[in-house]
Amino acid sequence: MTTLEHSIVMGGSMAGLLAAAALAPHSARVTVVDRDPLPVDGPDAFAPRRGVPQGGTVHRLLALGEARMEELLPGLREDFLAAGAVPRAAREADPVLDETTPNEGAPAAADGPLGADEHDAPGVDEPGTLWITRPVLEGVVRRRVLALPGVEAVQGAVGGLLTSDDKRTVTGVQLRGTDAGELHGDLVVDAAGRSSRAATWVEGLGGTRPRTLGTRVHVAYTCQRLRLREGALPEGTESLSAPASSRRPLTIDLEPCGDGEHVLAVAGTSRHQPPVDLAGLLDLVALQPERELADALDSALEGAEPVGQSSAAKAAGAHRQLWEETTDGPEGLLHIGDSAVMFTPLYGQGMTMAAVGAVALRDMLTDDGADGLAARFPRLLGALLDRAWEITTSRDAQIPDAEMLVDGAVVEELPATGSLVGAGQSTGETHR
Ligand SMILES: Cc1cc2nc3c(=O)[nH]c(=O)nc-3n(C[C@H](O)[C@H](O)[C@H](O)COP(=O)(O)OP(=O)(O)OC[C@H]3O[C@@H](n4cnc5c(N)ncnc54)[C@H](O)[C@@H]3O)c2cc1C
């Protein structure tokens, strides 16, 4: 059922691509606009992009994210495997999810590949079943999405919104750069990530700027891809993990990342920043206090060959714009992915919740059409993301020096968000 003529998606990263997949059955045309080129072939198809500086660091896709992406793009798991992803043999202890932060209320984790009961709603903190790098994951999704009928990519930076004369309806976007000009459409989806300027643009149109909630925790990652020697890991082991402890407040992980490579990933928060190069990472491993683990890591890394340079990335915590509270925003504009809610990366929720949002968008269009979408969708999305938001913020609160923020000001405690969806509004019973 096509209800839209032309949908424009600002941002061609995970949220934008998945939103485009969600829109494709409902929109005669979908244009994905990104500052970066979005190649589907050639050597750059699986390469890190400038617009996703975090792309060189470990990105874990939760089981829920896998399931939702598979719903949007059936057969995707096979494509990931064909592109070099490694299936996780079985449920393993996850240093972040299981040790430093208990796996609150998650159902039993899936062993092995997603099977017939893959849609049995895994929890928002259940580890996924694949080892894969972020650029490969995104590259595979990009190839699938841009092959969908009616979906195309345009390179350019969105510099503002086009609107009707009364500014009540968004009618397209203004492009800067090589292909400067105007793109006209009946729906604009803001998937421009944490640098999105949509709130400022909406304010400029006379709408209310949404309230923001957030945490400040300063997370830093350094990752180095490696080729380990044959049999480097202890027999029957596919990864090694050292959770953060009071004696060494950095997590260390050595895990497969596809194509016979492994990645050594070190993450820390606040004052505990990881070293930025391989030599520093190896020194840190040697200082690991638990002797047995230190020996295993040491021996696994002996003779390892670095693949490329190390990658470092930082994040400042979680950030949420409460679009569900605003009632005077323009019609024809939606926010999805990090531009709406950005999760603290430590818990690996961002891509998964982008997929949850995209499936909800597809289902809402299927069930109720496009009328009033700009008002209806944020309420549904907010309700669907609440649980993951609660997990992120409550775990952040346990990190020493963490701060809680409302509209950028430090507060003792964040307000609960579950109550934002009032009685009678959709809470996602039919929209998972
Ligand atoms: C260090 C780090 C580690 C992470 N680890 C994980 C993890 O393990 N698991 C997980 O699920 N998530 C992780 N995340 C989060 C994850 O990267 C994001 O949630 C995910 O990329 C979805 O984001 P997005 O598509 O909304 O935005 P982004 O990925 O930020 O993409 C925004 C896109 O919009 C484009 N853009 C921006 N402005 C414009 C404009 N004006 N015009 C045109 N294009 C524009 C950019 O070029 C970019 O392509 C991590 C994040 C960080 C920072």
Automatic annotation (TrEMBL):
- Its protein name is Uncharacterized protein
Provide ranges: composition bias, Low complexity.
105-115
Region spans: Disordered: 94-126
Gene3D superfamilies the UniProt entry points to: FAD/NAD(P)-binding domain (3.50.50.60)
The organism encoding this protein is Brachybacterium saurashtrense
- Specify the domain of life of the species encoding this protein: Bacteria
**InterPro entries, sorted:** FAD/NAD-bd_sf
